[in-house]
Amino acid sequence: MHGAVGMWVSVVLVIFLISGLSWAGLWGAKFVQAWNTFPAEKWDAVPLSDATHAEMNHGAAKEVPWTLEQTPMPESGSLAGTAAVTGPVTIDSVTAFAGTLGFDRRYQLNLPGDDTGVWTISHDSMSNDGPSPSADRTIHIDQFTGNVLADVRYADYSVYAKAMAWGIAFHEGDLGAWNLALNTLFCLSLMLVSVSGVVMWVKRRPSGTRLGAPPRPEDIPYAKGALLITLAMSLAFPMLGLTLLAVIVLDLLVLSAVPPLKRALS
């Protein structure tokens, strides 16, 4: 049971790991997100601000689409863009314009924060606005002219950014009742694998020891393959490599040098 459940759980776990780690501050922001950021150069002849889309997030909540977080915001105060909102640019006129584009259910409306800020209309899975990431859309409007400065849709995302949009929605259980049920089953399966692992350890540990590991098998047919996978994962995920290195150093320099600990854990 431990092996069978663990094998199927690992398939779902890979999706959780990739989406979760790509969303993280180190591996995601430094290694992956940087080369999947939506290029602001697509906004032809539009002045850009020093602020990024990430500044629209509220505290630690990640509400802005993953691929847009590091992209510079457009800036109000020019004649750039496409005519959109007519008359005074107010919350009522911007909301009315959003309605003409099909924003008739849940969506976000961000107000300009200063004289260079823009109105932003967005519907995206990161904000839990709907169950389909393919409906993502972010529109920026000049607060003075009412012109649309940028209109980013799901189709504009890179391949990896599209995968992240679906991956994070799946990760959070936002794709529907089936997704929530599957995630619940996944969590329960992880608990089962963990508990059954402890039970197996208790049954197989050497007699007369408290924390002893089971005896090492004489034949380990996949040892070299597992080692190669571990090395590859350590290179791809630096924090994993550092953690494994710390465990090896602890084992060689501390546990092996203290006979009582070595006897208790061997």
Outline the structure in words.
The chain is of the alpha+beta class. Among the domains are: 38-161, no CATH class; 208-266, no CATH class. The protein has helices at residues 2-22, 27-32, 91-100, 159-172, 177-204, 223-236, 238-255, 259-265; strands at 48-52, 72-74, 108-110, 118-123, 137-142, 148-153.
Q: Describe the biggest sheet?
A: 4 strands, antiparallel
What is the subunit organization of this protein?
A: single chain
Average pLDDT, rounded to a whole number, is 85
Percent in strands: 5-15%
User: Order of strands across the widest beta sheet?
Assistant: 3-4-5-6
- Please count the beta strands (DSSP E, at least 2 residues each): 6
Features:
266 residues, two-stranded antiparallel ribbon, 4-stranded antiparallel β-sheet, alpha+beta
Short summary of the structure?
The chain is of the alpha+beta class. The chain has helices at 2-22, 27-32, 91-100, 159-172, 177-204, 223-236, 238-255, 259-265, and strands at residues 48-52, 72-74, 108-110, 118-123, 137-142, 148-153.
Would you spell out the secondary-structure blueprint of this structure?
Elements: H1 2-22, H2 27-32, E1 48-52, E2 72-74, H3 91-100, E3 108-110, E4 118-123, E5 137-142, E6 148-153, H4 159-172, H5 177-204, H6 223-236, H7 238-255, H8 259-265
Antiparallel strand pairs: 1-2, 3-4, 4-5, 5-6
